[in-house]
Design brief:
By secondary structure, this protein is mostly helical. It has 5 helices and 3 strands, in the order αααβαβαβ. The radius of gyration is 24 Å and the shape is elongated.
Length: 140
Amino acid sequence: MLEKKKTNRTQFTGFLKKAEMKVRRVLADMARHFFSKLGVDKIFKSDPRLFFHSDYYLCHNARRLEHLASLRIPVAGLSVLEVGAGIGDHSHYFIDRGCTITITDARPENVSYLRKRYPRCKVCILDLENPVKIEGALLI
């Protein structure tokens, strides 16, 4: 009787493991499909705009900028360090208010795009996991 219970338990455990693997595969497929609909799968392409200008991102970004403007923070004329700018969709907020802005991102492809998009602004690579001093920055 004890042998039969062990066999049943082993079979059931094997069944659960197989079921778990199937569920994981289905969830992974669902996640891939979901993210491809959002445009997230395109991040691996060479042009960063393909990710940052997906429909989801543009809508989300518009809400962020509306919220930032609603706060009425007096930033006009200030110096701004934008960390993790992506392709600079928030940079306009500060530029339009007369700020002196240093735009940074960790990804070289984004920085390359930022330099083309904002030729009059200082644009630097800044990886906070491996930080380096930004030229002209004061260390306190």
